[in-house]
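On to my pick:
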Amino acid sequence: MSSLTPKDHGVQARYFDYLASGQWRIPVCTDCSKSVFFPRQICPNCGGVNFLWITPKGTGTIYSKSVIPGSEKNGGAYCIVLVDMDDGFRMMSRMHNLPPEETYIGMRVKSLLACLDGMAQPQVLFEPIIGI
C-alpha cells in the first residue's frame, strides 16, 4: 500500500484498498494539515493536492442518529450515526452490536472495521466507549 501515489491510484480507490487490507487510513493535506474526509483529489480547505495517509484516532462523539427499521428475520432495526471525529471531520456510518434505543446523541464512540451483511470488504463501524 505505501508504494501507491495519487498519480497512479485515485484517492477513493486508495481509501477502499486500505479498508480491504484491514486498515483504516484517511488523507491529511500536507499544505494545511486538515483531515480530508471523505477522500478527495483536492483539499476543500486550501486547494492542496498532496496528502499523507494516516491512521485516525478513531474516536468521536455522536452528532446525530437515525433508526432504520427492519424485520427481525433481517436483523431488526439498526442505527445510522453522524460522528464528529476527534481528528476534525464528520462521518456517517452505523453502530455495531448496540440496539438503536441505547444509542444517543453525545455518546462517545470508537471505530472498528467489520464486514456486514455478507459483504467481503470491511466497513468502518462504531461502538460505544465504555467507562467514560
Remarks:
- The CA atoms of residues 83 and 91 lie 5 Å apart.
- The radius of gyration is 16 Å.
- Residues 11-20 form the longest helix (10 residues).
